[in-house]
Design a protein that fits this description.
elongated; single chain; 2 helices; alpha+beta
Length: 125
């Protein structure tokens, strides 16, 4: 489903995005650590192969939530999300990068992350 967000809708979703992002970061870190121990044969408090498979499944579920909510997942390390939107009649992607406190950036669809600009204050709620 293709969804277009208003700026207000995207910002309203940010609290849930932050919760899911925090979980994704934790699951990803645990998975990386567990996979490293599995390749070296060292035991881990995180478990073994079954736990790694569980973490992979959980990671997939979290990423799936973002997509189901209408967001475009551009990367997971770091987490980079785009909200399809319109500003001043132009198709843009509202852009959020892991670690940012709020949704404050956008870029025209054609320019990607390199074309990232601050959302003009006139468009702020």
């Amino acid at each position: 489903m293709d969804r277009t967000f208003t700026l207000a809708e995207a910002r309203d979703l940010m609290q849930e995005v932050q919760v899911r992002a925090d979980e994704l970061i934790e699951v990803q870190a645990s998975l990386v650590e567990l996979q490293a121990t599995l390749t070296t044969g060292v035991s881990s408090q995180l478990g073994g192969l079954p736990e790694a498979k569980g973490l992979q499944a959980r990671l997939s579920e979290i990423v799936g939530w973002f997509s189901a909510a209408g967001l475009e997942v551009k990367g997971i390390a770091p987490l980079l999300l785009d909200f399809p939107s319109e500003l001043a009649g132009e198709s843009v992607l509202l852009c959020w990068l892991e670690g940012e406190r709020e949704l404050g950036w956008y870029h025209p669809v054609a320019y990607g992350f390199a074309g990232r600009r601050r959302i003009p204050s006139a468009d702020a709620p």
